[in-house]
Structure formats: structure tokens, C-alpha cells
TrEMBL record:
Belongs to the anti-sigma-factor antagonist family. PROSITE patterns: STAS. InterPro entries: Anti-sigma_ant (IPR003658), STAS_dom (IPR002645), STAS_dom_sf (IPR036513). The gene is rsbV_2. Pfam families: STAS. NCBIfam families: ant_ant_sig (TIGR00377). Residues 3-112 form the STAS domain. SUPFAM superfamilies: SpoIIaa-like. This is Anti-sigma factor antagonist. It comes from the Bacteria.
Length: 115
């Protein structure tokens, strides 16, 4: 499966919509895009995982790395995820305690800056 990435601005946040599978083969593309966004000055990023069908440990590592990079830049990263299989991965790894998780992009933006 292919990975799709698209970006838009919403309420002072940069929304990165991700689709397809995030795995050892596609995660480097996601990492590169997140680094590009941070290097371009984005400090509040919302990663929308609503169209992600599969997420492995490599993908989780990319998200954790992006969170660290954003925190060093004084920003934050929020995730949008409403699919139970993906939410289960975040709960099992305790990353639901690390990332702010939201059901919709609008809820993530309304919550304000992520820490």
C-alpha cells in the first residue's frame, strides 16, 4: 500500500493528513515530511491518522521523534485517531500518555497548543 501525505493550515496549526500504511518502508517519507514542516517553522502540528490502515513500530518511532523535535522548537504534536486498532497500539505502548489524541482535526485545533 502506498503512503499519502497532504498538508493544510487550520487555526494556527499545520495539519498533516496521512493515508495508507505507515511501516518500515513508508515511515522514512513521513519522517522527511515532518522534518520539512518543522524546518519551515511549523510549531503546532496535528497529524491526522484517520486514513491510516496500518501503523508499525517504525511509524511510532517517527511520531515520537517528531514530538521531540517539536518540543525542542517550543511546539507540540497532536494526533487525530478514531480507529480502535490504532488506538489499541497507542494504549499498549503507553503512547496515549505521551501524545494528545483526538477524534477529529477540529477537536485537536480547538484544544489549542499541544505540549
Amino acid at each position: 500500500m502506498e503512503l499519502s501525505l497532504s498538508t493544510r493550515a487550520l487555526g494556527g496549526h499545520t495539519v498533516l493528513e496521512v493515508g495508507g500504511e505507515v511501516d518500515v518502508y513508508t515511515a522514512p517519507r513521513l519522517r522527511e515530511r515532518l522534518i520539512e514542516l518543522v524546518d519551515a517553522g511549523a510549531t503546532q502540528i496535528v497529524v491526522d491518522l484517520g486514513r491510516v490502515d496500518f501503523l508499525d513500530s517504525t511509524g511510532l518511532g517517527v511520531l515520537v521523534g517528531a514530538l521531540k523535535r517539536l518540543r525542542q522548537a517550543g511546539g507540540g504534536l497532536s494526533l487525530v485517531c478514531d480507529k480502535e486498532p490504532l488506538l489499541k497500539i497507542f494504549r499498549i505502548t503507553a503512547l496515549d500518555q505521551v501524545f494528545p489524541l483526538f477524534a477529529t482535526v477540529e477537536a485537536a485545533v480547538e484544544a489549542g497548543p499541544a505540549e
